[in-house]
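Quick review question:
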């Protein structure tokens, strides 16, 4: 395994922040499915979680792994994103919808129909995760199962110009800014300010997910 694969990226865009990049699309492309975009954007990170649970890698801080064993492969590739990730996303969307999450203030997961928009949204969500990771992670299996210079892994795009830490901070700041703007817009539509996130989180969650899922 080459040096890029052995380097440890201790600073990653936190998994939930991945949704920021796909939520931006919902108001502009009305047919996209909110639930599939949201779940698809985080589903690839089941891979390192499973690797940690089964002892294939060790959790150490903000990223996996602490060893050189790969824990990001199939689900973090383009091929995996449009196949396995899509299937997993649809399954999870259906399961979440069955749990009656609207009672918890999470909208957009009920009465989900399996159509082209759902599958397309799931693919967009998972692909966005793969490409965002590619920006700042030091080892990315983007082109799996094809080898690039004898390896499944390629270096992060931003790492040509800077280190892992500044690249990860930049991506995280962009995602955080987008998240704050999206939340503020959703709450403002209902006559509330961002402060509602702190004063009444459950109500804020309901307004945000309802507004975003119905964005047009």
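Suggested answer, residue by residue:
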């Amino acid at each position: 395994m080459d040096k890029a694969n052995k380097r440890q990226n201790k600073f990653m865009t936190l998994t939930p922040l991945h949704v920021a990049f796909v939520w931006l699309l919902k108001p502009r492309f009305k047919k996209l499915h909110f639930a599939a975009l949201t779940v698809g954007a985080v589903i690839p990170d089941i891979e390192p979680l499973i690797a940690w649970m089964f002892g294939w890698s060790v959790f150490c801080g903000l990223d996996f792994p602490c060893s050189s064993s790969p824990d990001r492969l199939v689900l973090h590739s383009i091929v995996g994103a449009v196949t396995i990730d899509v299937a997993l996303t649809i399954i999870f969307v259906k399961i979440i919808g069955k749990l009656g999450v609207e009672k918890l203030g999470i909208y957009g997961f009920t009465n989900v129909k399996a159509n082209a928009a759902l599958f397309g949204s799931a693919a967009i969500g998972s692909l966005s995760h793969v490409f965002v990771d590619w920006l700042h992670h030091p080892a990315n299996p983007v082109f799996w199962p094809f080898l690039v210079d004898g390896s499944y892994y390629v270096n992060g795009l931003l790492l040509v110009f800077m280190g892992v830490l500044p690249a990860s901070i930049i991506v995280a700041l962009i995602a955080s800014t987008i998240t704050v703007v999206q939340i503020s817009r959703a709450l403002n539509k209902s006559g509330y300010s961002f402060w509602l996130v702190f004063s009444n989180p459950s109500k804020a969650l309901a307004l945000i997910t309802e507004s975003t899922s119905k964005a047009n």
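Why it works: The chain is about 50% helix and 0% strand. The mean pLDDT is 86.
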